[in-house]
Amino acid sequence: MPPEPTPALTPATAGPTPIRILLADDHALVRRGVRLILDREPDLQVVAEAGDGAEAVEEARKQDIDLAILDIAMPRMTGLQATRELSALKPDLRILMLTMHDNEQYLFQALKAGACGYVLKSVADRDLVAACRAAMRNEPFLYPGAVTALIRNYLDRVRHGEEDADRLLTPREEEVLKLVAEGHSSKEIAEMLFISVKTVHRHRANLLHKLGLRDRLELTRYAIRSGLIEP
Length: 231
Prior knowledge:
Blueprint: E1 19-24, H1 28-39, E2 44-50, H2 53-62, E3 67-70, H3 79-89, E4 94-99, H4 104-113, E5 117-120, H5 124-136, E6 141-142, H6 144-159, H7 171-181, H8 186-193, H9 197-211, H10 216-225
Parallel strand pairs: 1-2, 1-3, 3-4, 4-5, 5-6
Organism: Streptomyces chartreusis
Keywords: DNA-binding, Phosphoprotein, Transcription, Transcription regulation
Protein name: Response regulator transcription factor
């Protein structure tokens, strides 16, 4: 009898695609250490590195990434500036700040710029992996001291009866406001945010109505005061 044919090997079932990460820090040794923490996790993969904020933005243009981890203090363009640029460039990109600064001012600026998490380098080996996974679940991640700062800030505002107009805006309206203030046309904004020009016009009309403003110039001034763009 002829020998039975050898059965074909069934390929192993492929696991979920790892989270693709851009890592930006101006110290190569820090990047190497953080990369070791991340790459040992099967669901995390560093696919690009950058030595400053401007390079991080360029890498984000070239690479298909899900998550950016940025240092705050970097040359040419800080992590805060890069966060604003990346949020406009890729609205769906998740961004974490990884910093040595346990500083309320930096924390609030990072969150306003578009970061969804704030991790201290001193405890990166403990917190960073959890922060990455939380970010991809669209959940904020803050170290305990940061949570305390946010609560204290909120209670202070309530105590003083302050009403922040920013709370009136949806995240999408803030994105449109930033791009309008940066001088982009409705067509350009529609292409950048993957929405229709008609939707851009509707968001712009809502912004003017909610904020009690009249035109692009007043929107731009408001965006500067709110820290959405640099003066």
